[in-house]
Design a protein that fits this description.
It is a single chain. The chain is 59% helix and 14% strand. By secondary structure, it is an alpha+beta fold. Strands 1-2 form a two-stranded antiparallel ribbon. The longest helix is centred in the C-terminal third of the chain and has 40 residues. The relative contact order is 0.08.
């Protein structure tokens, strides 16, 4: 990402927004499309008609996705660190990181 902000016009549930962001325009469009899709999915479920309520429920769903992905990444990091320890243990002493051959 660059430090240069760009303005991107996006449409979410029929409303046009101009988003200023450091992210590349295609990223901003993809994020807006994801939000639009999530809101429309909530609205198409038939349980919510008002756009602002659908947006709140969509935000909760997206946040749940984020939290689950973050938790998975944390779990994966722990597994990788455990494997790293096993690999270091299996290396000959002179080849272990942080150790110098005598």
């Amino acid at each position: 990402m660059t430090n240069r902000k760009s303005s991107v016009k996006v449409t979410i549930v029929g409303e046009e927004y101009t988003i200023r962001s450091d992210a590349p325009p295609e990223h901003t469009r993809a994020v807006a499309a994801h939000v639009d899709s999530a809101i429309r999915q909530v609205m198409n479920s038939g349980s919510v008609v008002e756009t602002h309520k659908a947006a709140i429920l969509a935000a909760l769903q997206i946040t749940d996705e984020l939290f689950r992905a973050s938790s998975s990444a944390t779990d994966l990091t722990g597994e990788i660190q455990a494997l790293e320890g096993e690999v270091k243990r299996l290396l000959p002493p002179g080849k272990r990181p942080g150790k110098q051959a005598s």
